[in-house]
Amino acid sequence: MELTYEVEGGNFSKAGHASSSIKKVLKQLNVDPKVVKRVVVALYEAEVNVVAHAYNGIITARVEQGSVSIEVRDQGPGIPDIPLAMQAGYSTASAKVREMGFGAGMGLPNMKKNVDVLNISSQVGVGTRVELITYF
Amino acid sequence: MEISTVVSLLDARVVCGHQRLSEPLRAAFASDLMSDVLTLDTDGLVLITGMCNTQTIRTAEMSDIACVLLVRGKKATPDMVALACENNLVMLECAYSMYRTVGILYTHGLAPVY
């Protein structure tokens, strides 16, 4: 099963829509609730990152027997230094993002904690691709 | 502690989720930083917060948090209420400060996450 969602940069009122939808699908498929939580927390962090930093993005989730693979691809400023961005507490979030309760520099580390595979590639001025894979 | 006890202790208003008030809570976490909330993996949690926007509800939804308690007299927006109802969350509003709220619940035995 493959699911695709568009994410609008800057629109916090819709942030989490894709994660919510994918959570409902995983629950309907009777995936273990602990696995569902890990998947959607990581995905929600990624979705919020697109809203917070990028112009727009596409989320593609592939649900297979024993795994959930999610690709989050955005058009945006990109990440100049990925190892630095992975450090807990490092953030480039705006004041607006922080007012929403995010931007503490914990998103990428929390994604890493919740998934089995995290791959990030980015090109400055073009965009970022995040791959999240969870096995169950 | 049942959610209904939280309502009584804090003189809170039940915004939605009346049907779940008899459910037990295992612990409480107080934060306005949703990034911190998303790192938790405790079940049966009440989130105590003054962060009043739809992302508070989304964070609770993703984290399987049963109950969101808004403090400092914050009022849930119609968007928040709709989202909370859609996800079968309990949402409470309380006029007390976060400090007072946490003190009351802690002294009545509701455990911290850590």
UniProtKB/TrEMBL annotation, chain A:
<dbReference type="InterPro" id="IPR036890">
    <property type="entry name" value="HATPase_C_sf"/>
</dbReference>
<dbReference type="Pfam" id="PF13581">
    <property type="entry name" value="HATPase_c_2"/>
</dbReference>
<dbReference type="InterPro" id="IPR003594">
    <property type="entry name" value="HATPase_dom"/>
</dbReference>
<protein>
    <submittedName>
        <fullName>Anti-sigma regulatory factor (Ser/Thr protein kinase)</fullName>
    </submittedName>
</protein>
<feature type="domain" description="Histidine kinase/HSP90-like ATPase">
    <location>
        <begin position="18"/>
        <end position="133"/>
    </location>
</feature>
From TrEMBL, chain B:
<dbReference type="InterPro" id="IPR028979">
    <property type="entry name" value="Ser_kin/Pase_Hpr-like_N_sf"/>
</dbReference>
<feature type="domain" description="DRTGG">
    <location>
        <begin position="6"/>
        <end position="104"/>
    </location>
</feature>
<protein>
    <submittedName>
        <fullName>DRTGG domain-containing protein</fullName>
    </submittedName>
</protein>
<comment type="subunit">
    <text>Homohexamer.</text>
</comment>
<dbReference type="InterPro" id="IPR010766">
    <property type="entry name" value="DRTGG"/>
</dbReference>
<dbReference type="Pfam" id="PF07085">
    <property type="entry name" value="DRTGG"/>
</dbReference>
